[in-house]
Amino acid sequence: MKMNEPVGQTETIDFKLNGETISAFAGETIIQAAARHGVDIPHLCYKEGYRPDGNCRACMVEIKGERVLAPSCCRAPAANMDVQSNNARALASQKMVVELLLNDVTVDEDLKPGANELTYWAEKLGVKQGRLPRREGWAPDVSHPAMDVNLDACIQCTRCVRACREEQVNDVIGYAFRGLDSKIVFDMDDPMGASTCVACGECVQACPTGALAPAKKAYQVVTDKKVDSVCPYCGVGCQLTYHVTDNKIVRVEGKDGPANHERLCVKGRFGFDYVHHPHRLTKPLIRKPGVAKTADFKVDPDNWREVFREATWEEALDFAANGLKKIRDRDGPNALAGFGSAKGSNEEAYLFQKLVRTGFGTNNVDHCTRLCHASSVAALLEGVGSGAVSNQVSDVVDKADVIFVIGSNPTSNHPVAATWMKNAAKRGAKLIVADPRRNELSRYTWQYLQFKADMDVAMLNAMLYTIIEENLYDKEFVRQRTSNFEALRENVKGYSPEAMAPICGIPAQTLREVARTFATSKGSMILWGMGISQHVHGTDNARCLIALSLITGQIGRPGTGLHPLRGQNNVQGASDAGLIPMMYPDYQRVDNPEAIARFEKFWNQKLDHNPGLTVVEIMDAACDGKIKGMYVEGENPAMSDPNANHAREGLASLEHLVVQDIFLTETAYLADVVLPASAWPEKTGTVTNTDRIVQLGRRALDMPGDARQDLWIIQEIGKRLGCKWSYTGPESGVAQVYEEMRQAMNSIGGISWKRLEEQSAVTYPCRTEDDPGQSVVFTENFPTADGRGKLVPADLIPANERPDAEYPFVLITGRQLEHWHTGSMTRRASVLDAIEPQAVGSVHPLDLDAIGALPGDTITVASRRGRIALVARADEGTPRGSIFIPFAFYEAAANELTNAALDPFGKIAELKYCAVKISKGGEVKPLATYGGGQSYDEPRKKALGVAD
Asked: pTM (2 decimals)?
């Protein structure tokens, strides 16, 4: 459904267009109604979904009885109005405008061949080149790695201005100067590459002439095909279209999907060419005899032959499976473990966990959810009976009055979701952001709560105290739909705002004001990220958020509810599919007798009845010699796990490690056998986004060399371990795997493969094939034993490791806009690597000054577990006494510093808080053959025809 598409019954207005009576929906303009009825009125500044500006005047129509022509993009039809869009007067005006605009274009080359809207309308209207003298042109601006600017092709339609300021709300592009000097500018007329542009590319997609275009002359390349798919990065789940030629992605455009409505971020639009990087694995590799595995290593993907030799698929698959089988038969199933991937499809996740449970015979299977939202899921299952979100992100656009974002930096981690939040703030919703780091979203907030790191429970309990003490809770909702309220009331008595203010750092009056506003609005929605979950008290943090929603009745209605923003593109779907050690598909516990009976019958095999080990526990067991063999598909625990040196020790000590990936990652470097797999554009499969929307991604490319699809590899390993599988059909039998998974998961029972092929996206829960899917859940009850939401009190528990005299700073880790997770993909994407080429640590300027360092200096950061050196970046948003380091950089791996202490419920590590010390100086580790801008420089030179 498009953003402005009417829903349900709506009023219609009848009017005449070119002599025919047509109907318009209430709120439609003439141009929209005309388009629905197959009448195409010339237009250039108008773009469907954007605010109509009416400045180009190409869409002028004549309205009977009116003296002057009217712009059809801005004018709404009235009953019995008589409109002419193709009579002599209207056509003369339209032609004149197009001719004048052609005159403004001073570049002879068509910068958007085949899609240039000005050229299209000129040809359709029969308009030749303008008769007036051309104005003087501007020099091209090629300063930005992602986009080129050529104002000689600009018609000043201002679509780019609206794209930047009103759609994405980045406020970079403006319209400056007067008369012949008027032009589009970036910031204060800076080169685009020197501006504050975040490279979302919305302006490029909006531009009708190619004045703003993808770099490397991408528009000039004639493409073979266009393939619709889903972005492979964050959990927002943006739909996109790949433009492909000669089995290479040339460019990407946003598609009108339910989560993004054509919007993309820099990763989705420009982070695609990692799939073509020369480091792609193209042959199976087996470790050479005598090459030892150690935790202290340096990966050099160009020199893999020092460690591995090439093998045939038959040899590699036999070697991989036989090593696992040997350990299983000798030491028992629980000596094996598997890590699946949230970067792959639902079908891969389902089949991988099935392989571990039926082929290995153990529940030791997990994936990166354990390092993301495991504590959130634990609290949600306990409190409301479901680990998924209650409402979709799009609810913030026009349904929520109050939006409470906590422990999340959406502008970096979920950029398209952040645009909806900014849009909501612009329309008047009260946006509250709570985070120890001040981020870009703070520019649009009603209240910004920059609380002290680790003090989430103190702040949230103070809000609960206020709501209960001031009698603002929803008594009827609490009575009918919750349990354990009295225990919560008793627990928060010691958490008054006045008592908590010095602990959490937020004034008492502010805490009370925020609590009152949240409780009394018509719709309050909570969205949170890993700043909530990645603590030893992460489950308690989430319990407080659940309590806030439950006691105020802010759940079960549009514009309310609980939404943990999912990190990876398929972390929701992988968890749904059972890629976790204590749950079968659809969150059926492995120690539940009914669930055991169901899956033993469904899979026709006896199963382990005990919950398996989680990610960190598996690494501990590997170090202790209890886990002897592992199968890792598309994960990189040697970079992503806390206390990475410990994780590397565990991986190096394994008797047999099978790694399936697209690059020789840090984890693959420690493998005994490496299986070359498929990147996301090289497979067909489904993913489930943070909104519970199951979406179909379609294969756009063939795999390089002898790489194979992940689903095929999993099946081949499974068969060699004794699994009697036979999935047939195109794309490694993906449709058959999906249909089997659907039988195991009641939540998607109504979403058939055929339906996904037709609709591309369907929301679950969806029980029957005529069910549209439920975007809002918990409307009448909760899927708990008694149908009530359980209120669970939380007390103030300190971080496992606090700053002291020796380690006086707090380390906060996370992602950044341009780079994703461990960087294996994004640092091989040329544009992303060029924009953010090196590891940086963000420190408050006063803290930098205190250690005698300047921005750009090298600093060393050390914890009790390791030390790294990286470049200092001054950031006033980082609180005093803290440093923020992204964990995507192998030369300065933040997880060498982090603490593996676990939340006791979610078994998630405390990645967001540990004690470190910072000093000026140090030596940054040398780069391997990627990162540091290397992915960008040579291709850019070639595209521009620049010699060395």
From this structure: 0.94
